[in-house]
């Protein structure tokens, strides 16, 4: 078969180009350490590597989330440690104030010290994180958690908890609402007043206080208005739930009206309608701020006289129990934070193991076998050199060499 000179050149060039391309590909594999340089090299392997890489990136994001969660929880733990120390200091002062040898001026000095602790507690409750968000405001991140109020401090946040995805199947709360930390305290010996839901008048309670702690019963009371709101009657509904018996106290009503019974004194104002009811109930929960404020007021106003000293002694006993409840509550939340931090450690260990698995799997699929690659490199170099030399020889053949 006759072969033209042009065919010889084109065929030789094609073979050399093909050999050079194979050599370059092996060189790239050796240089990069990767067997799969494009999906065309191994479509199935490339798809598996893509899936594994995506899983690895998700795992890395969960690791970053856990670090952020750990930072937030560590900050809260630090703040609650300060709160624990503050409550313990307050309890020491309360016990000190119970010394019967202290006179009125000394009790007021302790009240001043407690006021400093109160201000510090408000500052702690309004702590901000590194982003400037209020730590204990729930979802209201830009709103200070607490603002000063006559009875202590008013909570302006909500009960929301920020949740963070720390693993594929685990969301974790990275904060706690101030309502749970500072307000949700089991109360002892304190009372709350309110107007009944069905009232039609404008009567309201402006003040409730303990005037004689020795007379307290811990019962529940209803104040019922009659005669078009011109008369009030106080009933102990713990003993007389149907209000069929003789009232504890009764009298004409004129706003503002002070109503006293069983060691309590309530000031009612406004214009209650006939049949309207005001309630007085022992408190189930009390704010730590309210407990501390009550102690300060107690030491400032009740330090003289036999009844006053008895009120101080009784009030300090109640406050000490409430501070114990507050301390238990804070320690319980700190224990919860500790459990979450420990869980993050376990998740980090599992995440590290997953990352090692992904690395090994990806390596097994896409990494080059250097022994084979170097052998192929040497082989392709020889093939290319052979092709080049043979091309030179063949193209040098000519009939003119024999003339």
UniProtKB/TrEMBL annotation:
- Domain Flagellin N-terminal spans what residues? 3-140
What sequence ranges are listed for the domain Flagellin C-terminal? 323-402
Places the protein is found: Bacterial flagellum; Secreted
Which PANTHER family does its entry note? FLAGELLAR HOOK-ASSOCIATED PROTEIN 3 (PTHR42792:SF1), FLAGELLIN (PTHR42792)
Q: Which organism is it from?
A: Keguizhuia sedimenti
Report keywords, A-Z: Bacterial flagellum, Cell projection, Cilium, Flagellum
Where primarily located? other
Q: Where is the signal peptide?
A: none
Task: Provide the protein name.
Answer: Flagellar hook-associated protein FlgL
**Gene3D superfamilies associated with the record:** f41 fragment of flagellin, N-terminal domain, Flagellar export chaperone, C-terminal domain
Q: In terms of domain of life, where is this protein from?
A: Bacteria
Q: Which Pfam families match?
A: Flagellin_C, Flagellin_N
Task: Tell me which family the UniProt entry assigns to this protein.
Answer: Belongs to the bacterial flagellin family.
């Amino acid at each position: 078969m006759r072969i033209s000179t042009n065919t010889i050149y084109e065929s030789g060039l094609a073979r050399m180009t093909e050999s050079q391309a194979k050599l370059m590909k092996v060189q790239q594999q050796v240089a990069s350490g990767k067997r799969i340089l494009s999906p065309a090299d191994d479509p199935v392997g490339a798809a598996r590597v893509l899936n594994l890489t995506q899983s690895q990136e998700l795992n890395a994001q969960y690791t970053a989330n856990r670090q952020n969660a750990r930072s937030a929880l560590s900050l809260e733990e630090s703040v609650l440690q300060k709160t624990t120390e503050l409550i313990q200091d307050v309890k020491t002062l309360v016990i000190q104030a119970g010394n019967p040898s202290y006179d009125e001026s000394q009790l007021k000095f302790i009240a001043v010290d407690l006021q400093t602790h109160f201000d510090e507690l408000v500052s702690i409750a309004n702590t901000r994180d590194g982003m400037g968000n209020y730590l204990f405001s729930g979802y209201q991140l830009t709103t200070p958690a607490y603002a000063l109020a006559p009875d202590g401090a008013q909570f302006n946040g909500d009960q929301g908890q920020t949740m963070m995805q720390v693993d594929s199947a685990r969301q974790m709360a990275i904060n706690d609402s101030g309502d749970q930390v500072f307000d949700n305290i089991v109360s002892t010996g304190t009372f709350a007043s309110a107007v009944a839901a069905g009232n039609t008048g404008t009567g309201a309670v402006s003040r409730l206080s303990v005037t004689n702690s020795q007379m307290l019963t811990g019962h529940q009371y209803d104040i019922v208005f009659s005669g078009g709101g011109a008369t009030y009657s106080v009933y102990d509904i713990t003993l007389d739930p149907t209000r069929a018996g003789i009232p504890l106290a009764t009298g004409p009503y004129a706003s503002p009206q002070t109503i006293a019974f069983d060691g309590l004194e309530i000031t009612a104002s406004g214009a209650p309608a006939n049949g309207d009811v005001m309630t007085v109930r022992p408190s189930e929960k009390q704010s730590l701020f309210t407990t501390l404020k009550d102690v300060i007021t107690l030491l400032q106003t009740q330090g003289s006289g036999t009844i006053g000293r008895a009120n101080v002694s009784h009030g300090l006993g109640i406050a000490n129990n409430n501070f114990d409840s507050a301390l238990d509550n804070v320690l319980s939340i700190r224990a919860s934070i500790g459990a979450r931090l420990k869980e993050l450690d376990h998740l980090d260990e599992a995440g590290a193991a997953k990352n090692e698995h992904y690395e090994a799997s990806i390596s097994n699929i896409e990494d080059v076998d250097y022994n084979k690659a170097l052998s192929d490199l040497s082989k392709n170099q020889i093939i290319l050199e052979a092709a080049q030399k043979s091309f030179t020889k063949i193209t040098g053949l000519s009939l003119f060499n024999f003339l």
